[in-house]
Amino acid sequence: MFDNKHSITLLFNANKIYDRRIIAGVGDYLQTSKVDWDLYLEEDFMARLDHLDEWSGDGIIADYDNPEIQAALHKANVPVVGIGGSYANPADYPDVPYVATDNYALIQAAFEHLRQKGIQRFAFYGAPVNEHHRWAQERENAVLEITRSQGYECHVYRGHPVRPETWQYTTKRLADWLRSLPTPVGIIAVTDSRARHLLQVCDHIGMLIPDKMSVIGIDDDELARYLSRVSLSSVRQGCFEMGVQAAKTLHRILKGHNKPRKPVLIPPECVAERQSTDFKAISDPHVMQAMHYIRQNACRGIKVDQVLDYVGVSRSNLEHRFKEERGHSIHNEIHNEKLSRACKMLENSDEATSQIAKICGYPSLQYMYAVFKKHFDQTPKEYRDARRDQDEPDLSLKAS
Fold it and tell me: Mean pLDDT in the chain?
């Protein structure tokens, strides 16, 4: 039996990846449960908040990180479930059933990821204090508490709001801060968009990533991933699960159950590890330079001679340094970088294997097949299928 039909209003900005994943979670609950809901997603609800009572339907799931929405729903005459960030102070939670992304757990995941890489210095690129971005202050407080409790200092920079007219000034000030940091350092950015600023400025000032600065963001926004030459590691929020739990909570309320007294905190899904935190403790500056060049250009079909030209030392000199620092040759480093990129694409994307071979710089699909058979005794398709059945893929590479 289906429940009575209800009209449910969703107050979210569908232009944001965070909001879209929440909406997807609500939709999933609609598909997998017995609710009979009509979901109404208002495209320009901010312009009509004053007349909310005229179109709110039977229930509302809303973005409670937005104080204007909170204020507009303060006297709503239908059940409301809020979604937003978590707070260290319980008194800061709104007086409605609430589902939250766990800000402390997000920062904890980013910090532990960097520390497991062997990083011993930390920094945080936050955001200016803003009532619309209270989650940013919560994340800043969390990183300071976590690093302090573990005996580390954390350098914090909030930066400036990003506007076209002040972009040059903002970029210069961020560059000044980055130059002032001790290196190597792991930087946690409050969002992926702020992390992308870091990657761009590091590129401009010649700061090597991840050798000097390892950067991790929050959101795992696909757009941010492709807008920089170095792929961005990021903590993926549990937004989909937040949407599911919010819909489940509203469903129970509409069925006559009591409203939950405590907020539901949703932990992060995982850390999506990419190039920006692929830190390895390297002391030799020539090897560090070579590694930086290889990471950025291995899939473009570069040869050892191009690495030598970039670093500006003889082959025998750099090969000796590579053996000391990395335990293998420059050629092997190029080879391993291409193979690692192909492995990650097979695991994390649905690209055809022929396209992956092309993107990763292999001369043909048959050549990539031969490489995978040699290293893993599997075809690329077999590798993809096997790794997708595992929670933690094994990316260990054999020396050739």
Answer: 89
Q: Around 195, how many Cα atoms within 13 Å sit in the side-chain half-sphere?
A: 37
Cα-only R_g, the chain: 24
Residue 167 pLDDT class (50, 70, 90 cuts): confident
256: left (phi over 0), alpha (psi -120 to 50) or beta: left
**Bridging pattern class, strands 37-41 and 213-218:** unpaired
Q: Which of these ranges, 40-44, 235-239, 327-331, 348-352, has the smallest mean pLDDT?
A: 40-44
Q: Is the pLDDT of residue 113 over 70?
A: yes
Cβ neighbours for 21, distance < 8 A, ≥ 6 positions apart: 237, 239, 240, 242, 243
**pLDDT of 44 above 80:** no
pLDDT at 397: 42
Give the count of beta carbons closer than 10 Å to the beta carbon of residue 182: 10
Alpha-carbon distance of 207 to 196, in angstroms, equals: 14
Q: Are 346 and 383 in contact (CB under 8 A)?
A: yes
Strands 154-157 and 185-189: unpaired
d(CA 228, CA 347): 21
- Dihedral of the alpha carbons of 189, 190, 195, 196, in degrees to the nearest 10: -170
* Number of neighbours of residue 270 by Cβ within 10 angstroms: 15
pLDDT tens, residue by residue, 270-329: 999 998 998 876 778 898 889 888 988 899 889 999 999 999 999 999 999 898 888 889
Extract the tokens encoding 232: 């961005």
Angle at 85 between CA 83 and CA 88, to 5 degrees: 130
Q: Which two tokens stand for residue 242?
A: 């937040």
Dihedral over alpha carbons 193, 194, 199, 203 (to 10 degrees): 110
- Do 290 and 310 contact (CB within 8 A), yes or no? yes
Contact by Cβ (8 Å): 228, 199: yes
Number of continuous H segments (helices) and E segments (strands) in the chain: 15, 12
Q: The tokens of 172 are what?
A: 């210069």
pTM for this predicted structure = 0.75
Would you mind telling me the total number of residues written for the chain in this entry? 400
- The confidence score (pLDDT) of residue 53 equals 62
